[in-house]
Structure formats: C-alpha cells, structure tokens
Write a structure and sequence with these properties.
The protein is of the alpha+beta class. It has 4 domains: 91 residues, Immunoglobulin-like (Sandwich), CATH 2.60.40; 83 residues, Immunoglobulins (Immunoglobulin-like, Sandwich); 298 residues, Protein-Tyrosine Phosphatase, Chain A, CATH 3.90.190.10; 301 residues, Protein tyrosine phosphatase superfamily (Protein-Tyrosine Phosphatase, Chain A, Alpha-Beta Complex), CATH 3.90.190.10. The protein has a 9-stranded mixed sheet, with helices on both faces. Strand 33 and strand 34 form a beta hairpin. The structure holds 2-acetamido-2-deoxy-beta-D-glucopyranose (NAG) (5 copies). One 2-acetamido-2-deoxy-beta-D-glucopyranose binds next to loops.
Length: 941
C-alpha cells in the first residue's frame, strides 16, 4: 500500500516537475507604429523562470528573461505595419527543462512611408513630359498610390494619382519650366514629396508658320520700299524745275483746326473770337497759308501763259488740278490756259469759277470760257475804274454798240439797269462757229464795294448773294466771279465767294453753319483767295451772324400782298404774329455810339428834346461862317471834303446824316429849329446845298412850340445867308414854299423848296398816307438826278433835309418810306427791316413802335395794289417832268462808259431807276386833287 502510495506520489512529483503551467490571459497589442505592449498573468503553479520572445518571420527570435512576478512588458523599436509573433515561456529547470508557451501575434500601426526612389522626368513631345519613379524603401503600410503635383512657379497646374509611378503629363504650355512633385500615400499617410524639374520646348509647327509669314511680310515690305525709292527718284528727276514750290511743306500742319460753329451759338462765338481786337480770328486767319504748296502750278508758270496772268511775278495763278481748261485751238500750246479756277459750292461741286478780271489780251479767252462752260451768270466785284487806274478791260459792248465780237464769240447787250449797289446787264452770247442759238447771260457788277476795305454793313454781302442766286438756276453753268487781285490791297471777290457758298445749305436754324475749315479747303483751290484780307474774314462772320439773327426780310412786290397777310396772322392768337416777331428782332441800337458833342454844356440849349441827340459819328457839322466865306466859288466842292478834320472846331446842330437808298448819297434828319438855331439851320441848308426841305410838323402842337417859324414873308437875313420867300402853293395835304438863298459874298442865288405836310400829329400815324406818298413822288422832281460819280464825294451835297419836331418821330417814318418807295420803284423789292435798322443806327428814336413799322408795310402794299395777281405800279405824278438839267453830265459815269456815252447812259439808267418815262400818260387825277395844281417854279433851278 505504502509502496503504491509512494509510487503514485513519486509519479505525481514527476509529473509536477516536468510540466509547468502556461501563463494565463496572454495578450499583446500595438500602441503605435513602433511600440507594442504585452500583458499576462503569471502561472499559479511552480515554475523557475519566465522568458519572452518576439520576432518577425523569418528573423530569429529575440528572447529576454523576465522577472517571475512581472505581468507585462513594453516592446520598443518595432517596425511599422509588421506582424510580430510573441511567445511567453514559463520554464522549470530540472534534469529536463520543461516549459509551456503562450503565443500571441499582433501588427504594429501604419507610419509615414519613405520618399519615392529614382524620380525622373523626360520630355516626350514639345509639350508632353513623362514622370516615373521607383517604390519607396519603406511603405509602412499597405499598397497605396503615387500622387503627382505639376507646378509652374507657384501655381498648381494639375494633380494626378496612379497605383504605379508612371505618369504621362500632356497638353502643357510651350516653352515653360515645370516642377513635378511625387509622393507615395499608403492609404493613410503620404510620404515626403520628391521633386524634379523639366521644361517644355517651343511649338515647332507654329514657329515654322510664323517664320514663313515673317519672311513673306518682309519681302513685301522690301518690295514696297524699293518701289517708293524708285518712284521718288523718278519724281525728283522729273520735277527739278518745281523746286521752289516744295519749300513750304508743312502748310497743312499750320492750318488751325477750327470747329464748325453751330448756328445757335454763332453770335456768342463771334463775340468771343472778336474780343481783344479779334485775336482769335487773327490766329485762325493767319494759319491759312497763302499758297498751298501741295498743289502744283506748273501750267500757269509756263512761259507762253505768263502774259495771261495779271501779275506775272506774284500770285494769283491757277493751280493745275482745278484750273478751267479751255478747248485747244489748232494745237496751239497754251491755248487751253486761262487764269480761272473751279470752286466747289456748299453741296454742288464746281459751282463757281473764280477768274481773273479779263485783260485786253485775255478778253477773247474769257468769253470763250463763258461759252464753253455754259456760264449764265457773271459776277464782277469791282468797279472798272479805281482812282484813275483802269482795273479791268471793259469786256462787254456798250448799249450804243449793241453787240461786239470777241474771237468767235458774239456778245449782244439787251438791257442795262442800274441799282444802288449793282448794275445788271442782260447779254446774249452766241458763237459764230456753232449753229446753236445764243444764250442769255446776266452780268452783275457790284459797284458799292469800297475800293480798299470792306462794306460797313455786312448786309450788303447778303444782298449780293440774293441777287446772284436770283439769276442762277439749276440748269445754269458755274457762276463766274472775278475781281482784280492786287498785291497790297485784297480785292473784294474773295470775300464775296465764300458767303453764298456757305449759305446755300438749308437755312434751318438748327443746322450747323458750315465750318470755316471746309471753306478754307475750298479756298485752297484758288491762290488768289488765300489773300483774303483779315477784315473780309471777319466780314464773312458778320454776314453769317446777320443772316442767323435776322434772316431774310426782303420781299418782292409781286409777293408782298400774300406775304403781308401771312405775316399778320396770329397763330395761335396768343402768340405775336410773325410781323410782330420781326419787329421785335430789330436791334434798338440804344447808345451804340457816343453822343458827346450834343451833350456838351454849351450845346444843351440847342436841343429840343434831350433824349434825341445825334451820334457824333454822323452828326451834321456846321462850318463857321468865317471859313465858309473863305471858300471861293469854284473850289467849294473840293474844300468841303474833309468833314472829319472839322469835328472839333465845327458848330453843333441837332441833325444827323441818314443813309438814302441811293448809296452813298445821304439825307439829313434834323430837329425843328429853335428860335436860337434858325440861323444855324439856314447855314446848314446853305452849306450842304440842300434843295428840298421836308417839314412834317405844325408850328405848334397844342400849346407848345413844335418848331420855330424859320421863314418870313419877303427877305430875311440869317447871318450871311439871305432868304427870300418867292412863292407859296397850298393844297389840302401839303404846302410848298419856294425860297431863294443868297450868300452875302456870292452872286448866284439858289432855290430851295420847302414841303410842309399838314395835319400829322407826331404821336399818330398820318391820317391820309396816300397824300404823303404823293408828296414824296412830287418832291423827288426837285431833287437832282442820281449820278453815281457823285458818290465818292461822301457827305458833301445833301439835297434832301427832313425835319419834324425832334427829328425822329415823323422823320423816321418819312425816311423809311422814302427809301422803300425808291427801292420798290427801282428793284421791285422792299426790305422794311433793313431800312428801319439802318435808320436806327443813324439816329436815336427812329421808328420806335410796331404800329409805325406795320404802317410802312401797309403804305407800300396800298401804293402797289395787287390786281389779278399782278402788282400794279401806281401812276407817277411826275411822269411829265423833264430830267433835271443840273446833273453834272460832263463827268464820266463810273459805270465803265467812256465820256461820250456817259450822257446817254445816265439818262438810260435813270429811266429805269426813276421811272421817268416821258411817253407815258398824264398826271393822275389824285394828284390834281391833293397836290398843288401846278408845280411851283417849274424846274428853274
Ligand atoms: C509610441 O508611444 C510611445 C509612448 O506611448 C511614444 O514614446 C513613442 O514616441 C510612440 N511612437 C510613435 C512612432 O508614435
Ligand atoms: C499578419 O497578420 C494578419 C492578421 O492579423 C494576416 O492577415 C496577415 O496575413 C499576416 N501577415 C503575414 C505576413 O503573415
Ligand atoms: C515552447 O517554445 C520554445 C521556444 O520557441 C520551443 O523551443 C518549445 O518547443 C516550445 N514548447 C512547446 C511544448 O511548444
Ligand atoms: C492617403 O490616402 C488616403 C486614402 O486615399 C487619404 O484618406 C489620406 O488623406 C492620404 N494622406 C495624405 C497625407 O495624403
Ligand atoms: C488566473 C486568471 O487571472 N485568470 C483569468 C483569465 O481571464 C478570464 C476571463 O477574462 C478570467 O475569468 C480568469 O480568472
């Protein structure tokens, strides 16, 4: 039993000593990528020692003995993302060492992979780059992807990812350096980026295209340059004779760029440019070159043409490009040359021909041009005589001759009509070689343009334009304008031509006025015109301002009646009628000139009305009697010429010169004499050789004196002047008195007529206007006949003196009416607006009310009543009267006539003008009733 027990015990011991218990609850885990941790519970039974081994297959085990009581351990320096097998061994050491194991396997966490290896980039095409690399040394994680960033500079161009490291980057920009950044991402962490740089190359295809293009362009440019050089060379060699004209190359550059002026601001612009003595105008004007060197003038300089230019050595001559070419005669060199150039109109090309005034040598050519160019209007803007020089050949037949032949051209004169500013001649032009019938040509000669300088009133320019336009029509050829072109004093054609050119556009108020630049472009056409005087440059503007402000106010008698009834219509009734509007446009000219002399202390008592004082510039200056007496009878005409010098020492009388219709003749508007000024009044009558005094007032108006009675029965002496009343003739409407004036130191008596119109109160309009008209027609017979040669003696003889109470009230109406009737008689047109405007410029207080203004229209309308659509000329009571013999007929007429013809021509012109037609009927019955029964002292003067 014991032995059995012992055996069992021994067996038991044996067993005990051979098998230790395995450690309990053995676990391991990863703390992070490189650390791990194992825990266990030591075995309960006996064991000698314990050891722990861990490894990664196929590496061998790494074993460390552990403390018997230890229950955990930290593992260090592990590799990331690696399976570790850990064995914990409890051991009993005896004859035979026995152990029991506990095993645990775990994997460490992921960590960042290492950089990729062997990164390289290579260009596959001009803009494609391949990027490749090898795996990183440590993935530290499962298989991931390769990431590629493509950058240029700091900008990210694109990103790509692939499981393998073989990128092909296409569509890059040409000629650019790129940065390729590659990293490996093991699904959790990305490794560091490796970078490599590579550049794309230029675009070879584009480059080739560009190069080809460049070559072509260069070749073309080269060809052009070569051609230009060749061309220039050719021109140089052919134009050697023209070198003097190439001097002023930059004349276009100096030309100022002047903006067109809109019609609305024309007046302001004019005032602005006129400021400071026209500084801005001057700058503009001076920028216009005298000669436009870009246009050649070869033809004019050819030797056989030189004698055809008025001034051989100086301009003007015609530019080649727009000169008027005549037909060739027998191939004669130069037979096609005439000094004349085409000028464009506002819208019509070649509307004008600017020509040199014909010389004796060129008259035939001139008429050949008229015939060939089919011109129907010739405008001559010069008088034939200037001083004593003949400025142009008289190139048309006289009325006596009837016709004349110029080369092959036959010119016949049919009519010669003189008007104040111009002479109109109706011609028929034919050609001997051609069967065609003759053509009517109108020759308009403007006579009132001052020899040197410009007309005072820009309205004259507009009037000339109207007349020319009236004669030209759609079918007529170019309008031929000619002047003389004097070196020092620019002639007048130049100012004439542009104005019609520019006004021929539609006269709508909103339309901008044509720019002066365009005008100047047209002026380039004719060298002569570039001499345009500065004053004329301003005159053009003044005329435009005038036109813009006042418009056309002239009306022909044939249209007067419908025109007037339209003008009086108020539409709508609240608005002023057009006639009232026209009146309102009249400038007042209040204090527009100085009135110093009349306002001087010693002269104040000589004024009847302190408000009506004559302007200094046109007052009638009285010479002192002493000087008057010094004059000898013969040279009295000459010695009274210089009124201006006498301004200071002359005596004052309240009287003004007023323009008459027949310029430059004038009338005198005077106040009714005061008791103290009767002597001065007669002095004025004597000194100015007054023939007719018109008195439009009664002596008394109510209780007040309106006019001193300046005449007495019988003889009366006023200073040196003795007045003898010879005759009185009274009718219901007016009284005519005849006086004989005699100066104490002279022999010849002079007859002066006085027409006193009855019953016209200054505040009202005349009750019987017809009688006023009759009186005017009657008194005209006492006036000397017009003779334009007198014209130059400005302000000398003033045959007509008008006075009322203050020299303005009735006088203004009378003067306007007088001028308007003359105009209606002569030209069959009236311009009430201009007539009144001119009076207002001459004296204060003229035609101040609308009633008076309208009255003027009405009187003319009733004097020329409309009958069956035709205007009937009223009968002239003076029809029977002979032409006044006092006209100085010996003097040659300025009208281009030689002295023997003067007499005939003058009377011819007067027949037209004055309507003195001896053959026409007898005095009208009205005349007999209202006027004096027989003319007082018939034509004895
Ligand atoms: C792992 O954890 C231990 C402590 O917990 C730390 O000291 C060690 O830096 C860690 N290693 C990594 C790779 O995070
Ligand atoms: C590591 O252990 C995981 C399971 O924990 C197993 O899926 C994997 O295959 C093992 N890796 C290796 C190399 O034995
Ligand atoms: C226990 O582990 C050791 C070490 O690896 C080994 O040699 C031995 O054979 C193991 N014993 C058993 C019973 O598995
Ligand atoms: C790596 O890839 C995974 C999955 O694709 C992504 O979630 C992670 O953000 C990536 N890591 C980095 C650093 O890019
Ligand atoms: C000896 C020891 O502590 N054993 C424990 C092993 O783990 C299990 C379950 O987790 C426990 O029940 C044992 O007591």
């Amino acid at each position: 039993m014991v032995s059995l027990c012992l055996v069992f015990f021994t067996f038991y011991l044996l067993i005990l000593s051979t098998e230790p218990e395995a450690p309990q609850n053995f676990t391991c885990s990863a703390k992070n990528a490189t650390e791990g941790k194992c825990t266990w519970t030591p075995p309960q039974s006996y064991f000698d020692r314990i050891s722990l081994c861990y490894w990664i297959s196929p590496d061998g085990p790494n074993c460390t003995p552990q403390d018997k009581t230890q229950d955990g351990i930290d593992l260090h320096n592990l590799r990331p993302f690696t399976n570790y097998t850990v064995v914990l061994q409890a051991r009993v050491t005896g004859k035979v060492t026995r152990s029991r194991n506990a095993t645990y396997t775990f994997r460490t966490d992921l960590a960042k992979p290492s950089k990729v290896n062997g990164l390289s980039a290579s260009r596959k095409t001009e803009n494609t780059i391949a990027v490749s690399c090898k795996r990183p040394n440590q993935l530290n994680g499962p298989e991931g992807k390769y990431y590629l960033e493509v950058r240029t500079g700091n900008t990210l161009v694109k990103t790509e990812s692939r499981p393998d490291c073989r990128f092909l980057v296409a569509d890059l920009q040409y000629l650019t350096e790129y940065n390729f950044l590659v990293s490996y991402n093991n699904t959790k962490f990305a490794g560091p980026q490796e970078s490599v740089t590579a550049s794309t190359s230029y675009n070879a295809k584009a480059l080739i295209i560009f190069l080809v293009f460049l070559i072509i362009v260069t070749s073309i440019a080269l060809l052009i340059v070569l051609y230009k050089i060749y061309d220039l060379h050719k021109k140089r060699s052919s134009n050697l004779d023209e070198q003097q004209e190439l001097v002023e190359r930059d004349d276009e550059k100096q030309l100022m760029n002047v903006e067109p002026i809109h019609a609305d601001v024309l007046l302001e612009t004019y005032k602005r440019k006129m400021a400071d003595e026209g500084r801005l105008f001057l700058a503009e004007f001076q920028s216009i070159p005298r000669v436009f060197s870009k246009f050649s003038i070869k033809d004019a300089r050819k030797s056989f043409n030189q004698n055809k230019n008025r001034y051989v050595d100086i301009l003007p001559v015609s530019y080649d490009y727009n000169r008027v070419e005549l037909s060739d005669i027998n191939g004669d060199a130069g037979s096609n040359y005439i000094n004349a150039s085409y000028i464009d109109g506002f819208k019509e090309p070649r509307k004008y021909i600017a020509a040199q005034g014909p010389r004796d040598e060129t008259v035939d050519d001139f008429w050949r041009m008229i015939w060939e160019q089919k011109a129907t209007v010739i405008v001559m803007v010069t008088r034939c005589e200037e001083g004593n020089k003949n400025k142009c050949a008289e190139y048309w037949p006289s009325m006596d001759e009837g016709s004349r032949v110029y080369g092959d051209v036959i010119v016949e004169i049919n009519e010669h009509k003189r008007c104040p500013d111009y002479i109109i001649q109706k011609l028929t032009v034919g050609n001997r070689k051609e069967k065609a019938s003759g053509r009517a040509v109108t020759h308009i000669q403007f006579t009132s343009w001052p020899d040197h300088g410009v007309p005072e009133d820009p309205h004259l320019l507009l009037k000339l334009r109207r007349r020319v336009n009236a004669f030209s029509n759609f079918f007529s050829g170019p309008i031929v304008v000619h002047c003389r072109c004097v070196k020092t004093a620019p002639g007048s054609t130049r100012a004439f031509t542009p104005a019609p050119m520019r006004l021929s556009g539609p006269p709508s108020p909103s339309a901008p006025v044509a720019s002066r630049k365009s005008v100047r472009r047209k002026l380039q056409c004719f060298p002569c015109l570039t001499l345009l005087g500065f004053a004329q440059y301003i005159l053009i503007h003044q005329a435009l301002v005038e036109y813009n402000q006042f418009g056309e106010t002239e009306v022909s008698l044939s249209e007067l009646h419908p025109y007037l009834s339209n003008m009086k219509k108020r539409d709508p009734p609240s608005e002023p009628s057009p006639l009232e509007a026209e009146f309102q446009r009249l400038p007042s000219y209040r204090s527009w000139r100085t009135q110093h002399i009349g306002n001087q202390e010693e002269n104040k008592s000589k004024n009847r009305n302190s408000k009506i004082i004559p302007y200094d510039f046109n007052r009638v200056a009285l010479k002192h009697e002493l000087e008057t007496s010094k004059e000898s009878e013969q040279d009295s005409d000459e010695s009274s010429d210089d009124d201006s010098d006498l301004e200071e020492i002359s005596r004052y009388i309240n009287a003004s010169f007023v323009m008459s219709y027949w310029k430059p003749e004038v009338m005198i508007a005077a106040q009714g004499p005061l008791k103290e000024t009767i002597g001065d009044f007669w002095q004025m009558v004597f000194q100015r050789k007054v023939r007719v005094i018109v008195m439009l007032t009664e002596l008394k108006s109510g209780d007040k004196e309106a006019c001193a009675q300046y005449w007495e029965e019988g003889k009366q002496a006023y200073g040196d002047v003795e007045v003898h009343m010879k005759d009185t003739n009274k009718s219901s409407a007016y009284t005519v008195r005849a006086f004989e004036l005699r100066h104490s130191k002279r022999k010849d008596p002079r007859t002066v007529y006085q027409y006193q119109f009855n019953n016209w109160n200054g505040e009202e309009l005349p009750a019987e206007p017809k009688e006023l008209v009759l009186m005017i027609q009657n008194l005209k017979q006492k006036l000397p006949k017009k003779n334009s040669a007198e014209g130059n003696k400005y302000h000398r003889n003033v045959p007509l003196l008008i006075h009322c109470r203050d020299g303005s009230q009735q006088t203004g109406i009378f003067c306007a009416l007088f001028n308007l009737l003359e105009s209606a008689d002569t030209e069959e047109v009236i311009d009430v607006f201009q007539a009144v405007k001119s009076l207002r410029r001459a004296r204060p207080g003229m035609v101040p009310t609308f009633e008076q203004y309208q009255f003027l229209y009405d009187v003319i309308a009733s004097t020329y009543p409309a009958q069956n659509g035709q205007v009937k000329k009223s009968k002239h009571p003076e029809d029977k009267v002979e032409i006044d013999n006092e006209v100085d007929k010996a003097k040659p007429d300025a009208n281009c006539t030689s002295p023997p013809e003067a007499l005939e021509k003058t009377s011819e012109g007067d027949k037209e003008a004055g309507g003195a037609k001896p053959t026409e009927g007898a005095e009208g019955p009205e005349h007999a009733a209202n006027g004096p029964a027989s003319p007082v002292l018939t034509q004895s003067a």
